[in-house]
Amino acid sequence: MGIFSGGELANIIEWQEYRDDVIFWKWANSEIKRGSRLIVRQGQDAIFMYNGKVEGVFSDEGNFEIESQIIPFLSTLKGFKFGFNSGLRAEILFVNTKEFTVKWGTKSAVMLPVESLPGGMPIRAYGIFTCKVVDYLTLIEKIAGVRRQYTVEELRDRVIGQLDPLLMKWIVAEGKNMFNIQMNATEIGEGIRSDLDMELHKIGMSVTSFAIQSVTYPEEVQEMVKKAAGQSMISDVDKYTQIAMADGMEKGGSVAGDIAQLGVGIAMGQQVASQITGQAPAAPAPAPAAPAAPAAPQMQAPGKKKYNFCPNCGKPANEGNFCSNCGFKFE
Questions:
Q1: pLDDT digits (tens, 9 = 90+) for 285-320
Q2: Containing structural domain, residue 274
Q3: Which of 31, 134, 187, 213 could form a disulfide with 127 if both were Cys (CB 3.0 to 4.6 A apart)?
Q4: Do 184 and 229 share a domain, yes or no?
Q5: In terms of pLDDT, which residue wins out, 97 or 281?
C-alpha cells in the first residue's frame, strides 16, 4: 500500500497525506459504500470519475455525503442515476490547485556556436519556473488515466529534457550576446516560457513564469572577463590622477605629499597591468615638481656695519674695508 491510502471499502474519501510536491493523487478503491463521505480540503479540487469518464469537478472545500449530496448533483448533470445495490465503483482524482515553483538546471553543458571554437563554447544555466494545472480533461487523458499520482520531480525531468534546444534558440537564433546572457535574461526567459508553455499545455499544465538566475561559463572565459575588467579600470588611471590632485588641492592638503602618493598609486597600477597583459610596465612619467621655496635673505656677518656712503667724505662706499676716496677705514 502506498503513502496515500483511502483504505479498502473506506467510508471516508480524502487526500489525507497531502504533499506540496504532488500534482495529483488518485483515490482508486474497489467501490464506494453507502454512507461514504467526500472531504475536499483547501488547495484541492476533487474530480469524480465513473467508468473512466469525468462526471463532475468539486472545487469547494468541505465535507460532502456521497449518496445525498454528490450523486444527486451528478445525476442532474448527466441525466442518469447511480445505484448502491452492490457498492458504487468509481474513482476520485484529487488535484493540487496551487502554483508550483520548480528549480531547473541544464542537464549537460549547452554548446553555443563560436566561430573560433569548432565545438562551440559550453555554458550551463540555472533558475526557476512556476506552473499549474489548467486543463483537467487533458491531464487525465495524458497522465492521470494510467497513473495514480504525478510529482513535481517528474514534471521537472520532462521540462529539463526540452530546455537545451530552447536555450540555444533564444540565445543564438534570436541574436543575443552570449557573453551578456544575464543582461538579456528577462527577454530570453520570456521567450523560453512561451515555448515551454505550449509544450506543457499538451498535458494540461501551463508555465506562468520562467527565470534565468545564473549562467556559468568555462573557467578560461571567466578569467578573460576579469582581465578585461582590470584593463578597463587601469586605462582610467590618468583621469583618476587628475581628479585626485584637484580634490587634494581643494581640501588644502600637501601638494607634494599628494603627488608622491599618486606616483606610488600609478606605479602599482602599472604593475597590475603588466601582470594582466603580460607586458613590461611602462616607465613612470616624472611627477610634477613641487613649487620652489622663496630664497632666504642673506645675513650680514656679525661685527661689521654695512656702509652705503663714507661717513668721513660722504662719497659712495665700495665693497672694501677702506673708502676709495679718502681712505677712511670702515668699522
A1: 555 555 555 554 444 445 556 667 777 777 777 777
A2: 222-243+266-278
A3: 213
A4: no
A5: 97
Give the whole-angstrom CA distance, residue 231 versus residue 274.
10
Length of the chain: 331
What does the alpha-carbon distance between residue 238 and residue 11 come to, in Å, rounded to a whole number? 84
Q: Buried b / exposed e across 3-29, counting CB within 10 Å, b at 16+?
A: ebebeeebeebbbeeeeeebbbbbbeb
Does 20 map to a domain?
Answer: yes
Same domain, 108 and 213: yes
Q: Does 32 share its domain with 60?
A: yes
What is the phi/psi pair of residue 7, to 5°? 80, 135
Q: What is the pLDDT of residues 104-131, one digit of tens each?
A: 998 888 888 877 777 788 888 999 999 9
Same domain, 155 and 183: yes
Are 34 and 65 in contact, with CB atoms under 8 Å apart? no
Query: Do the domain assignments include residue 261?
Result: no
Q: Scanning the structure block, which residue is given the C-alpha cell 500500500?
A: 1
The answer on 204 and 109 residing in a single domain is yes
Cell numbers linked to 114: 563560436
Q: State CA 122 to chain mean position distance.
A: 19
Say how far apart CA 298 and CA 190 lie, in whole Å.
84
CA distance 26 to 91: 7
Instruction: Give CA–CA dist 167/172, Å, rounded.
Output: 8
Burial class of 96 by CB neighbour count within 10 A (0 to 12, 13 to 18, 19+):
buried
60 in Cβ contact with 40 (< 8 Å)? yes
Local structure of 59: helix, strand or coil:
coil
End-to-end CA distance of the chain: 131
- Full 3-state SS string of 274-330: HHHHCCCCCCCCCCCCCCCCCCCCCCCCCCCCCCCECCCCCCECCCCCECCCCCCEC
Domain count across the chain: 3
